[in-house]
Structures are given as structure tokens and as C-alpha cells.
Design goal:
Elements (H helix, E strand, L loop, with lengths): L8 E5 L4 H12 L3 E6 L2 H11 L4 E4 L5 H15 L4 E4 L15 H29 L2 E5 L3 H4 L5 H21 L5 E7 L5 H8 L7 H7 L10 H11 L10 E4 L13
Length: about 260
């Protein structure tokens, strides 16, 4: 990969595992310095070993305002600016219909998946105005088409899609672009956990391959490649876009059952 992101500073939430870690590695490969915020100390330790000491990791909870503020301030102190905010942190549980979802489960999913974007934007907006940077939100195909037995999660992803477009309009006068990536299924620890919650868990892998017209369920690197593009000047006239990285899973009349 060419150095599309040479010398850019990227603040990435949920960047120590899954899609986020694949993004962190691709950002590094493209020449960026990465500030990874996550809530798991062990995975952050492994992350910095792979990325190298010129990058930065911060332990914190993206649903807690002061944690996000401290992490962004640390990044600004270390690097002097921030060019990209990538809101990737998210949780997928519970896998339930709406009436079975508890108040606590509903609130947690919204706090992690959605309120975290409020916090990163609030505390980084002045830095992004200075750098004329961009924001990337990790959404999901289910935010557009829905999904059975996954009400709270799909609600947050649908909200992220419209929020991305509203943010794009609000921040365009400052030359700040805001886009989202929307995978279908991608093999991550979170997806594996979701699979275990399903009635026919042993058939999940075949099912995940079959829902993609391209014939397979990918790893997170396919999403990371799209994020490198959206973070780079190659996408300089793209904003308010919900980019599918889905292998065509949303197309046609395909319906696979577990």
C-alpha cells in the first residue's frame, strides 16, 4: 500500500481487536500515526507491540465522557494535532427482539455505539477544524436493511447512518468530511460471540459465507482498506457517504436461513 496517509494522526476507538485492529495496522502501513483507544488492557498491550512505540494506546471507556476527553487530549499533547477521528468501537449484544431487551441492555448498546460519537466529536472538533480533517463512523449493513433478533444493535447502526449525514452537513463549512463504512458480516471476535447466541450456532460459518454474493465472509482487512481510502485525500470530495463493504449482501432477493 502506498503512503496515502503519510504523517496523518488518526484517533481510533475500539482499535485493539477485530475490524479496529485491522484498521490500525492498515493506517500504519499507509504512513499514519495511530492513537488507539480501547477498554481492554491486554489487547492494547498486544496492539502497541505490533504497531510500535511511535503510535499510542489509551485505556478507557468510550461511553464515559471524561475518558474520551482525556484520550483525545493525550493524543493532541503527543502529536500536536488530529487529522482523523475513526469511531469504530461498538458492541453487538444483546441478540434479542425489542420486547426482550432490558433497559440496561438498551442503554449500554446506545452508550457504546452511539453516544461515544457525541463524545469524540465534542472533544475533537476544534482540532479537526484546524486540520480540516475527517470523521469515519463504523456502521453496518443492518442499519439500512434491519435484522431479526437484533433490535438494539440495528437501531444504533441506523442512527449512525443518519447521524453521519447530519454531521457531514454541519461540518462541511469547516472542510471536515464525515463518512461511514457499512460492512455486512466480517469475522471478528464480536461476530463469533454473536454466532454463539444463535439457535443453530454450528451452521453460522456456512451461513455467513452464503449471504455474500461474492461467496465468502471476509476478514476485517477489507473494511480497513475502505477506511484508508476515506481517510485519505483520494476521497477529498466524498462526504455524507455510507459506503457498503458488504460483498453485495444487500442486493437482490437472496434469503438464507439458519
Amino acid at each position: 500500500m502506498s503512503l496515502l496517509l503519510k504523517d496523518k494522526i488518526i484517533f481510533l476507538t475500539g482499535g485493539s481487536m477485530g475490524i479496529g485492529f485491522e484498521c490500525a495496522k492498515k493506517y500504519k502501513e499507509a504512513g499514519a500515526k495511530v492513537i488507539v483507544m480501547a477498554n481492554d488492557a491486554a489487547s492494547l498491550e498486544q496492539c502497541i507491540k505490533e504497531l510500535g512505540e511511535e503510535h499510542c494506546t489509551v485505556l478507557g471507556d468510550v461511553s464515559v465522557s471524561v475518558d474520551v476527553q482525556s484520550a483525545i487530549e493525550l493524543g493532541l499533547k503527543k502529536y500536536g494535532r488530529i487529522d482523523v477521528i475513526h469511531n469504530n468501537a461498538g458492541i453487538a449484544s444483546p441478540s434479542k427482539p425489542l420486547h426482550e431487551t432490558t433497559d440496561a441492555e438498551w442503554q449500554k448498546v446506545f452508550d457504546v455505539n452511539l453516544k461515544s460519537i457525541l463524545f469524540t466529536t465534542r472533544f475533537s472538533i476544534e482540532a479537526l477544524k484546524q486540520s480540516q480533517g475527517c470523521i469515519i463512523n463504523t456502521s453496518s449493513m443492518v442499519g439500512e436493511i434491519g435484522q431479526d433478533n437484533h433490535a438494539a444493535y440495528t437501531a444504533t447502526k441506523g442512527a449512525i447512518n443518519t447521524l453521519t449525514k447530519s454531521m457531514a452537513l454541519d461540518y462541511a463549512p469547516f472542510k471536515i468530511r464525515v463518512n461511514a463504512v457499512a460492512p455486512a458480516a466480517v469475522w471478528t471476535p464480536m461476530l463469533r460471540e454473536w454466532g454463539k447466541e444463535q439457535k443453530d450456532a454450528e451452521r453460522i460459518e456456512k451461513y455467513m459465507d452464503e449471504i455474500h454474493p461474492l461467496g465468502y465472509c471476509p476478514e476485517g482487512d477489507v473494511v480497513a482498506d475502505a477506511c484508508v481510502f476515506l481517510a485519505s485525500d483520494m476521497s477529498r470530495f466524498i462526504t455524507g457517504c455510507i459506503m457498503p463493504v458488504s460483498g453485495g449482501a444487500e442486493l437482490g432477493y437472496r434469503r438464507m436461513s439458519l
